[in-house]
Amino acid sequence: MKFSALFSLAAVCFAQTPNILKSCGGPTDTLNVTDVEIYNYPFKAGQTSVISTIGDLTQTIVNGTKVIVSVKVGTITLYSTTQDYCSESGITCPVQPGHLINNVSQVIPANIPAGSFNLQVRIVSPTNAEVSCISGKIQITK
Description:
Belongs to the NPC2 family. Keywords: Lipid transport, Signal, Transport. The chain is mainly beta. 4% of the residues lie in helices and 55% in strands. Strands 3, 5, 7, 8, 10 and 11 form a 6-stranded mixed β-sheet that branches. Strands 1-9-6-4-2 form a 5-stranded antiparallel β-sheet. Strand 10 (115-124) and strand 11 (130-141) form a beta hairpin.
């Protein structure tokens, strides 16, 4: 599965939906998420969807930062992946503090069943300090 994070607001030709994902980060997060927008929703198995996270970055994002995506039903993990934030995104780290729009493009696995799932996306520094976290209940259709 290909993961790609982009740091500029790309032209996205998908219909935006109501905000179902929220920040699950704490007060020590270095990316204070103020809004999360979802495009191409509900998610459809085998297709690409885009999640745009908007917020304020208080510390530099450096090489070695990771993105951890997990999809669960209750406590059972159906899908989990860890990707390098900088190398997978095609951007150059370090990313300096300031206002940030972070678009994450994710291909939904074709073999995932239709249903309602819990999604969590965490960004962690090379020292495992949380940079940001978003989570919520999502729908996947066939």
